[in-house]
Amino acid sequence: MTAATDTALSVGTWAIDPVHSTIGFSVRHLMVSKVRGTFDDFSGTITVAEDGTASVSAEISVASLNTRNAQRDAHLASADYFDVATHPTATFTSTGVRTEGNRYVLDGEFTLKGVTRPITLDLEFNGVNPGMGHGEVAGFEASVVLNRKDFGIDLDMPLETGGTVVGDKVTISLEIEALRQA
């Protein structure tokens, strides 16, 4: 096995490969553990221009959330939390990209439950390798901590011992493979 060799994405459009990518989340539960889940339906593109500038856009089907518990997933999809009937998608659109060594700092606008907020992703660029029969493949990893209340997800169920059933801080974790488009 050889290591990824390229240090930058080549000019063109790169599509996020949902089969080899994961968008995960974790949130404090009952103040003592974490609930983890994924969004299983998403898409996105990375576009690198001739002048080296880049842009990123992504869309997540919020209804595809999966915590491995159907009852909890239904509650999270309800108006108490994500309200997927009214707000079926979450989106990210970059407003700026800069490089720092093998890292990309990606500024953008994240929209969830109809609320748009600026966020910054510190992406670790894992490199580019030839794909298995379908061109170049690039890899990235990132995580960001968001406050769910900033996006109107503000249901609090207090515990008798203090705190709430669901924590305010949600960690979003990204493991992304992107395929260079012909």
Low-confidence stretches: none
Computed Rg: 18 Å
Q: Output the number of helix runs.
A: 1
Mean of the pLDDT scores?
Answer: 91
Q: Helix share of residues? A: under 10%
CATH class: Mainly Beta
Q: What is the CA–CA distance across the termini?
A: 26 Å
Within the largest sheet, what's the order of strands?
Answer: 1-4-5-7-8-9-10-11
Estimate the global geometry from the Cα principal axes: elongated
CATH fold assignment:
Lipocalin
Keywords for this structure?
182 residues; mainly beta; Lipocalin; eight-stranded antiparallel barrel; 1 helix; 4% helix; 56% strand
Write up this protein.
The protein has 1 helix and 11 strands. With 182 residues, the protein is mostly beta strands. It has one domain: Lipid/polyisoprenoid-binding, YceI-like (Lipocalin, Beta Barrel). An 8-stranded antiparallel beta barrel has the order 1-4-5-7-8-9-10-11. A hairpin with a 3-residue loop joins strand 2 and strand 3.
Write the layout of secondary structure elements.
Blueprint (H helix, E strand, L loop, with lengths): L11 E5 L5 E8 L3 E7 L2 E7 L5 E8 L3 E2 L3 H8 L11 E12 L2 E10 L2 E16 L5 E12 L18 E15 L2
Antiparallel strand pairs: 1-4, 1-11, 2-3, 2-11, 3-6, 4-5, 5-7, 7-8, 8-9, 9-10, 10-11
Would you kindly provide a brief summary of this structure?
The protein is mainly beta. The chain is built from 1 helix and 11 strands. It has a single domain (12-180), classed as Lipocalin, CATH 2.40.128.110.
